[in-house]
């Protein structure tokens, strides 16, 4: 089987060099792989680095570089899909590391009869410093991130979504392309349509790719807020795209708001109860997260980091839900104007 290996990048000059090396090191025959880079109008040296890679003689079928004028990630994926010519289309983020057997494992799973496959997504840190490692622990933790199967699963199974998915070409021909009006949630919506089209999404723990954790606490908070915001907005067009765990931070935030209101009107017991339950769980999960690590004082900040991630995600979701009616109206006008 031949493979179209697709990468979307925007201002990734610091991260993409290591991904280039990972691509070079792939054990799967290079003469059965084409590489497609989509540059989302980067303002740094990302495109020049892509061009230098394309000039190398790595024996790939071809190395193609395309521009994504819209800059939106979903639009970039659609450009890659429309450009790809091979049997399997693999989507990889630029801020990623992949082992040398990644493509080989994907193809092996496809040859067993699967149409959509993906695997584990362990987090890694850009730098091995105590503070960066603390942020990594928060992101790796089920309490700080989520219980999505692609984060924790150890057995082959069928799931609602996967990280760094690989797809037979026919899947997009039947289910359609990515919704370019979405940000952050384009995977959820796409995978929902893929399932509706009759395909199963296979999670195989033998397939592993690594995602780099955001480099700062501020960036992590910004990421969680953005994830929550787009979940709130996307509920207006595809509520079935999500599972209950996507809304847990929102429920936590709503619980805080209700308990504060009850506190103000003279019923402090609910606020105290929520504080005790969440605080105890937060401390216990922080201890469990740091227990196997070599001790450092930065780990004392884990409860605060967890709280900030939960609140930012919940606030983002709540604001997204409030903005959703206006966003839907604006989206409808945009679609009508482009017909």
TrEMBL record:
Residues covered by the Glycosyltransferase 2-like domain: 4-174
Q: What is its EC number?
A: 2.4.-.-
Q: Which residues form a coiled coil?
A: none
Q: Which GO terms describe its molecular function?
A: glycosyltransferase activity
Q: Which InterPro entries match?
A: Glyco_trans_2-like, Nucleotide-diphossugar_trans
Q: State the UniProt keywords alphabetically.
A: Glycosyltransferase, Membrane, Transferase, Transmembrane, Transmembrane helix
Transmembrane domains' residue ranges: 244-267, 274-291, 297-322
Give the similarity note: Belongs to the glycosyltransferase 2 family.
* The protein's name: Glycosyltransferase
Species of provenance: Bariatricus massiliensis
Q: What is the lineage of its organism?
A: Bacteria, Bacillati, Bacillota, Clostridia, Lachnospirales
């Amino acid at each position: 089987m031949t493979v179209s290996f697709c990468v979307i990048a925007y201002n990734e000059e610091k991260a993409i060099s290591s991904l280039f090396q990972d691509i070079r090191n792939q054990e799967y025959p290079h003469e059965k792989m084409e590489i497609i880079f989509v540059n989302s109008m980067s303002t740094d040296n990302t495109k020049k680095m892509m061009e230098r890679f394309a000039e190398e003689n790595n024996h790939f079928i071809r190395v193609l570089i395309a521009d994504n004028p819209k800059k939106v990630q979903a639009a970039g994926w659609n450009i890659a899909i429309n450009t790809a010519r091979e049997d399997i289309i693999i989507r990889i983020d630029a801020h990623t590391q992949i082992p040398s057997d990644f493509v080989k494992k994907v193809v092996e799973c496809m040859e067993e009869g699967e149409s959509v496959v993906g695997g584990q997504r362990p987090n890694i840190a850009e730098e091995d410093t105590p503070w960066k490692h603390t942020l990594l622990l928060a992101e790796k933790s089920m309490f700080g991130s989520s219980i999505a199967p692609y984060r924790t699963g150890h057995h082959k199974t069928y799931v609602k979504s996967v990280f760094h998915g690989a797809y037979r070409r026919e899947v997009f021909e039947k289910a359609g392309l990515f919704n370019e009006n979405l940000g952050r949630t384009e995977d959820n919506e796409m995978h929902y349509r893929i399932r509706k089209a009759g395909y199963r999404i296979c999670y195989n723990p033998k397939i592993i790719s690594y995602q780099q954790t955001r480099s700062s606490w501020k960036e992590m908070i910004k990421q969680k807020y953005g994830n929550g915001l787009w979940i709130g907005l996307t509920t207006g067009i595809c509520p079935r795209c999500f599972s209950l765990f996507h809304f847990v931070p929102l429920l936590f935030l709503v619980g805080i708001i209700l308990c504060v209101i009850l506190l103000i009107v003279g019923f402090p017991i609910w606020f105290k109860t929520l504080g005790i339950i969440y605080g105890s769980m937060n401390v216990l999960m922080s201890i469990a997260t740091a227990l196997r690590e070599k001790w450092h004082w930065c780990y004392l900040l884990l409860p605060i980091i967890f709280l900030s991630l939960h609140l930012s995600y919940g606030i983002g979701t709540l604001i997204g839900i409030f903005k959703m009616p206006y966003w839907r109206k604006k989206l409808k006008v945009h679609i009508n104007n482009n017909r």
